[in-house]
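Tip: read the tokens left to right.
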């Protein structure tokens, strides 16, 4: 077994202290983790994307006010007090980062992936987004504009990916299944 990291030691120390002081129970912690791992997750975001693809009024609403669009679904989980949805087009590719730490719209995308918190992703996404995207397997034509959005405690971003071609007869439910977490962070295409 490998040595626990500094961060996990710190988290464990904090957890024991909060339990000892009676501010939290182990059950609270387990419930929170289970909630995000099992009940909330990128499926919430995927449902919004699929709806936006089939319902143009909803798409416009989501782009105008992401927070209001989320409210329609009534997802639990928070962290989207202010959600901004940015739309990929044939000319523009959006990607999301938190350069400061790891701000992320939990209620729509679940828990952030490990690499999202990686200092290399956080700094390089701003400096050389095209190179970072290529490492994720996204090779964009040079004429496509890349826009990088820096999430913060106040504003969280989510990408509305391009709807893949050739799915004209797919139902909203089927479309939901093809939307990936990474496509909504902007490091993958569908
Ligand atoms: Fe952050």
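Filled-in amino acids:
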């Amino acid at each position: 077994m490998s040595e626990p990291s500094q961060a996990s030691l710190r988290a464990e120390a904090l957890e024991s202290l909060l339990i000892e002081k009676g501010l939290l129970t182990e059950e609270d912690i387990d419930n929170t983790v289970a909630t995000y791992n099992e009940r909330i997750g990128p499926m919430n975001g995927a449902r919004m994307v699929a709806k936006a693809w089939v319902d143009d009024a909803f798409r416009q609403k989501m782009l105008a006010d992401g927070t209001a669009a989320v409210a329609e679904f009534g997802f639990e989980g928070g962290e989207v007090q202010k959600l901004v949805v940015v739309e990929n087009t044939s000319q523009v590719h959006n990607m999301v980062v938190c350069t400061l730490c790891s701000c992320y719209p939990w209620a729509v995308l679940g828990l952030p992936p490990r690499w999202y918190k990686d200092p290399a992703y956080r700094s390089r996404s701003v400096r050389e987004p095209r190179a970072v995207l290529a490492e994720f397997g996204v090779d964009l034509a040079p004429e496509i504009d890349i826009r990088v959005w820096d999430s913060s405690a106040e504003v969280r971003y989510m990408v509305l990916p391009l709807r893949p071609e050739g799915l004209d007869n797919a139902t909203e439910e089927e479309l939901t299944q093809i939307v990936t977490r990474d496509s909504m962070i902007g490091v993958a295409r569908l």
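The chain has a mean pLDDT of 90. The beta strands are 83-87, 92-97, 145-150, 156-160.
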